[in-house]
């Protein structure tokens, strides 16, 4: 019995030792595997497996980091949408801002078809003397223009030849374009009752920009004018306008200043049907000549909305064949008014002579200002040629704001710098500061009170005080309107 117990004990002890030994070997193998990635292992298979796992993990981490970096880079490179700005009547373009045509182009209308722009103007005459009723040019860059011919080869039967001008063109859809043109009523030119004839507005339709080279000419199939306010002397200078809600409008001038009426010229507006072919409702009188600089008339109106949705109306004033011609602006609550005049916007100055016939155009991304100005003389009597200029509105605003004057202080005195240009900001031009002797002599107030510094308790400055010291800041006393400069300096500190 004792022998059996001893044998059983021995067998159990042996099994226990065997179990402990196997467990120890297993732990050692596990430790070897877990450290393989840090030190070489004698077991090629285990090393390969572990190395593969480590590489996959690193690759996955690297890919994730690359994706995060790419996403961050995309977010950084994402262009923030340009902040739209309201139109400022005080920011007017100058002659040097425009790209002008090298040919006669009066009363311009510019219409975009994607990236291509079509320019329509008042009639011109071919070298053989025949009138070109609706001259059309095509351009991609406002520098090179391709002449496409006459967009209105046949006028409506109601109209006389040789008297067409001020076209207003609108693209209703890709296959329908409409031109509203001004022409004289048949038989009125030679009628003594109408010393300048009776002018009215016609409507012609085309399947495209309106030339034989692109599709077909505009066709006026009506036997009567589209608009003719005979009791008001006639109607001219129609300009179509598509509003932000896609509604269509037409604005024009009643020719009340015509000799047989001799009244006051006024502007009218009326809604168009969605196809652009019919007038809806009644015309509204939105503006009349009432300023001295507008003498003897106003005409050539055009609507546009600015970046924040405000509605503006440009119009020409003065006599078209002279340097008195200019452009005014009015702000409007709606296309039917009321409209409030903002004053004269463009006049003869800064490279422009008799600037008028202003219209606004958009290619869907950028807005453009289009104007007619005289070159070589103010009007035909002086041998002048009416040419068209085009400029991007954003460029005008940028140019104007870069030329704003700034005022600086230098050794306690006040100076004004020349306009800021690329040369001055790059330090390529030696600036000559112009000393200001009075606040009133500045072209516009440029000094504003921010705060006053009590200098009464300060000790006199020494040379060491003037040396640049990290963190130091010397705040000069700001000059205020009404201060007398350079004479009778104040003996006591300001409150």
Structure overview:
The protein is an alpha+beta fold and 495 residues long. It has two domains: 307 residues, Glycosyl hydrolase domain, family 43 (Tachylectin-2, Chain A, 5 Propeller), CATH 2.115.10; 89 residues, no CATH class. The chain is built from four helices and 24 strands. The strands form seven sheets. The protein has a four-stranded antiparallel beta sheet. Strands 2-3-6-7 form a four-stranded antiparallel beta sheet, with no helix packed on it. A four-stranded antiparallel beta sheet has the order 11-12-13-14, with no helix packed on it. The relative contact order is 0.08. The C terminus is likely disordered.
Summarize the structure.
This protein has two domains: 96-402, Glycosyl hydrolase domain, family 43 (Tachylectin-2, Chain A), CATH 2.115.10.20; 407-495, no CATH class.
Give the CATH topology of the largest domain: Tachylectin-2, Chain A
- What percent strand? 25-35%
**How are the strands ordered across the major sheet?**
1-21-20-19
Q: Tell me the major beta sheet.
A: 4 strands, antiparallel
Helix content: 10-25%
Please state the structural category.
Answer: alpha+beta
Number of domains: 2
Query: How large is the radius of gyration?
Result: 40 Å
Uncertain spans, ≥5 residues at pLDDT below 50?
22-59, 405-416, 442-455, 471-479, 485-495
**Outline, from the CA principal axes?**
globular
* Helical segment count: 4
The total of beta strands comes to 24
């Amino acid at each position: 019995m004792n022998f059996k117990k001893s044998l059983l004990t021995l067998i159990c002890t042996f099994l226990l030792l065997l179990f402990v030994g196997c467990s120890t070997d297993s732990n050692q193998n596990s430790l070897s595997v877990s450290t393989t990635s840090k030190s070489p292992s004698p077991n090629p298979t285990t090393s390969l497996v572990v190395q593969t796992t480590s590489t996959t993990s690193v690759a996955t981490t690297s890919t994730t980091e690359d994706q995060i970096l790419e996403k961050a880079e995309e977010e950084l490179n994402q262009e923030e949408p340009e902040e739209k700005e309201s139109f400022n009547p005080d920011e007017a373009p100058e002659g040097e801002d425009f790209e002008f045509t090298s040919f006669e182009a009066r009363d311009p209308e510019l219409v975009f078809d994607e990236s291509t722009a079509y320019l329509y103007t008042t009639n011109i005459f071919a070298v053989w003397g025949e009138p070109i009723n609706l001259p059309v040019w095509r351009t991609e860059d406002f520098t090179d223009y391709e002449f496409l011919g006459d967009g209105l080869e046949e006028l409506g039967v109601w109209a006389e030849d040789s008297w067409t001008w001020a076209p207003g063109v609108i693209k209703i859809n890709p296959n329908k374009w409409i031109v509203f043109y001004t022409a004289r009523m048949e038989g009125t030119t030679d009628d003594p009752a109408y010393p300048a004839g009776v002018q009215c507005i016609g409507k012609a339709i085309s399947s495209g920009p309106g030339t034989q080279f692109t599709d077909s000419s505009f066709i006026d199939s009506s036997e009567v004018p589209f608009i003719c306010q005979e009791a008001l002397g006639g109607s001219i200078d129609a300009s179509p306008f598509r509003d932000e809600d896609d509604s269509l409008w037409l604005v024009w001038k009643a020719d009340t200043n015509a000799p047989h009426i001799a009244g006051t010229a006024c502007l009218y507006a009326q809604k168009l049907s969605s196809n652009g072919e019919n007038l809806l409702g009644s015309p509204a009188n939105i503006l009349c000549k009432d300023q001295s600089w507008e003498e003897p008339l106003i005409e050539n109106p055009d609507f546009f909305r600015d970046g924040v949705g405000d509605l503006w109306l440009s119009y020409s004033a003065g006599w078209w064949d002279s340097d008195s011609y200019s452009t005014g602006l009015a702000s409007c609550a709606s296309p039917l008014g009321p409209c409030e005049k903002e004053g004269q916007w463009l006049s003869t100055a800064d490279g422009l002579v008799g600037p008028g016939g202003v219209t606004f155009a958009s290619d869907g991304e950028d807005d453009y200002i289009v104007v007619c100005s005289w070159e070589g003389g103010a009007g035909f009597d002086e041998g002048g040629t009416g040419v068209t200029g085009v400029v991007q509105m954003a460029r005008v605003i940028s140019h104007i704001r870069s030329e704003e004057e700034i005022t600086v202080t230098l050794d306690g005195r006040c100076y004004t710098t020349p306009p800021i240009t690329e040369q001055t900001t790059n330090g390529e031009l030696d600036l000559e500061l112009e000393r200001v002797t009075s606040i009133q002599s500045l072209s516009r107030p440029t000094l504003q009170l921010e705060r006053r510094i009590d200098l009464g308790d300060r000790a006199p400055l020494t040379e060491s005080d003037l040396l640049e010291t990290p963190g130091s800041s010397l705040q000069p006393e700001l000059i205020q309107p009404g201060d007398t400069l350079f004479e009778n300096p104040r003996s006591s500190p300001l409150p």
